[in-house]
Amino acid sequence: MTVAVLTGVPGVGATTVAEEANEALEEHDADYEVVSFGTVMLEVARDEGLAEERDEMRKLPSEEQRRVQEQAGERIAERAEDTNIMVDTHCTIKTPEGYLPGLPEWVLRGLQPDVVVLVEADPDEILFRRLDDETRARDFESTKELATHQDMNRNAAMSYATLTGATVKIIKNPDGGVEDAADELVDALA
Ligand code: AP5
Questions:
Q1: What residues make up the domain containing 165?
Q2: Into how many domains does the chain fold?
Q3: Which element (helix H / strand E) includes 18?
Q4: To test the ligand 1 pocket, which listed residue (36, 93, 172) has its Cβ within 8 A of the most ligand atoms?
Q5: Of all residues in the chain, what percent carry a pLDDT higher than 90?
Q6: What is the pLDDT of residue 29?
Q7: Which residues pair with 100 in a beta bridge?
Q8: Does ligand 1 have an atom closer than 6 angstroms to the CB of 176?
Q9: What distance in angstroms lies between residue 6's CA and the mean position of ligand 1's atoms?
């Protein structure tokens, strides 16, 4: 079974690209289940009375985030036993205590990804996508901070690859470029 980890700073459009690619993958007879790590974490956090909304989780004490993250990783690894999965998540999470690794060693051990995909865009485009999305309580990051966040994600992705042997694929998702980004993802996974 193939495990693809799809990442990008919040608001870059990783979820949008995953949904678009998944439809095309079905046409290639390459079935993937798209699993949102944040949604599985939210199920765990709700069960434990820690958070009600996904944007609350990155504000929890880092110790709690790690505990919830570990349980979510275990649940997702179980699903990957019988099906190809595309895990929609983050290489790093920007918390008040600093950058938290999205895939620490104890999560990677269960998931064993084949490829880590980084979806990237220009920081000013990401800034406007976040401001336009009224459905979410997204954090404000300046364009400089977004550029640093994307650099941190590249560094984290190569560490995850070093630990697992996964490849790292960078896909650009410029304004209006969802279809091309999805095509690139399909080429990498079909
Ligand atoms: P999660 O559920 O992943 O939410 P998120 O971080 O906000 O990321 P999204 O998936 O909402 O953003 P996206 O980049 O996919 O953008 P979208 O496609 O919606 O995570 C929630 C929380 O879970 C995290 O904050 C963290 O606390 C926790 N978590 C998750 N993984 C974790 C882990 N591994 N460890 C610890 N904690 C973890 O697109 C955004 C907007 O842009 C949309 O309006 C879309 O239409 C638009 N758009 C997209 N692409 C384009 C384009 N090319 N042109 C124009 N507009 C575009």
A1: 3-35+84-189
A2: 1
A3: helix 14-27
A4: 93
A5: 90
A6: 80
A7: 93
A8: yes
A9: 10
